Amino acid sequence: MKARDNPYRSERVEALAFRAEDFDWKNLEARLAAAKGRGAIVGPEGHGKTTLLLEWYARRTDAVLLRVKEGQRRLTSEQRGEIGKSRHLFLDSAEQFGWWGWRELRWLSRRARSVVITSHRPGLLPTVFTCRTSAILLGELMEELTGRIDEHATLCLWQQHKGNVRLALRDLYDAQAGIAGNPAHYWWQFLSARESKASMRWNWDDAFSSVSARWPIWSEFPFRLSWRRRD
Amino acid sequence: MKASVATERKNYRPGEEIRGTASWTTAIAPKTVELRLFWHTAGKGTRDSATVEALVFDHAQAQDTRPFAFSAPDFPPSFSGKLISLIWGLELVLNPGGTQNAGLVISPDGHEIELQSDVVISMPVPEKPKFPWGR
């Protein structure tokens, strides 16, 4: 399948609306108000924190959104300048900040009416929402994107990725496209390679390293054996 | 709002002229109307896009039809693989009003280039260092 026809392409996945079982905008705003306008959206990676933050940001006027890159320990000079311009501050990936970076942000945003951050762990600001996922949620997203649902696949993927819906959807993209990452692809590779066995030989080094690199996933072992063309 | 972008055909070679008409019907006359020739990527990764050329229609009426002409750029060509597709298009932006898109194909032969993942490219495999104790 071509990338532009893949139902799991990034533009479609990013357009999915945030959803959760116990989610309500009124309650969320009330929790933020109760926390004196300082709140954190907490949850592991791929659980919808950024999606919720972006939707919340879109609902506000006079707001600024800052995105912290991986490994960024403090605000950049551009970001420092933007903080004072708006009444509401939304900050993604606050857990990346170091001690000094976090103190600086707290100081610069002291006049802001509200500050909402996302973080992998609680404790930086009062938690206003904890993002959770489920196999049912993954199934709902799958149904919205493709119009059909595979309960077994969603459960397997959700468990395999420990609730990380983003990674599960990427695997579904691969499966739809028929490219590496999908176990079925390795099986197909194995079958097609067997047909041209004369020009191929096993490469045990590669086979071993690919298994040991992903140590506990023994279930994938038969699919991770690789072939290399004979010189 | 009703808006449409019509072109003489969908497939173009670099340097060819993309001719057509942009039409719209809105409740009030839009303040600005712009037609953009752009490309964007679609697929597994982050979406990338760029506007190559833009045309502003002055004194737009609530109901209007305007002809346009762009020159098809040399690069990048329309292509599609399993991981990424590059798509050319025309975007009519009415403010206030909304947007309307029309897809195009621009490539050397006028057809979308298909990236083949099954093609085997023979490359020399570097020899691994041999350990003194043998392996």
Task: Explain the overall architecture.
- Chain A has 231 residues and is of the alpha/beta class.
- Chain A is 45% helix and 13% strand.
- In chain A, helix 6 (135-146) crosses helix 7.
- Chain B has 135 residues and is mostly beta strands.
- In chain B, the strands form 2 sheets. In chain B, strands 2, 4, 5, 7, 8, 9 and 10 form a 7-stranded mixed β-sheet that branches. A 3-stranded antiparallel β-sheet of chain B has the order 1-3-6, with no helix packed on it.
- In chain B, a hairpin with a 5-residue loop joins strand 4 and strand 5 (49-57).
- Classes of the chains: A alpha/beta (231), B mainly beta (135).
- The A-B interface holds A 1-4, 6, 8-11, 14, 170, 173-174, 177-179, 205, 228-229, 231 and B 42-47, 80-85, 87, 114, 117, 120, 122, 124-125, 128.
Radius of gyration of chain A from the CA trace? 22 Å
User: What is the end-to-end distance of chain B?
Assistant: 72 Å
Taken in chain order, the helices and strands of chain A follow as: HHEHEHEHEEHHHHEHHE
- Helical residue percent band of chain A: 40-55%
Strand element count of chain A: 7
Mean of residue pLDDT values of chain B: 87
CA radius of gyration of chain B is 22 Å
Strand order of the largest sheet of chain A: 2-3-4-1-5
Shape of chain B: elongated
**SS element count, helices of chain B:** 0
Given as residue ranges, the uncertain stretches of chain B (5+ residues, pLDDT < 50) are none
Chain-averaged pLDDT of chain A: 82
Helix vs. strand class of chain A: alpha/beta
Unreliable stretches of chain A (pLDDT < 50, length at least 5) are 196-225
**Total of DSSP H or I helical runs spanning 4+ residues of chain A:** 11
Overall structural class of chain B, as computed from helix and strand content, comes to mainly beta
Tell me how many strands of chain B there are: 10
Helix content of chain B: under 10%
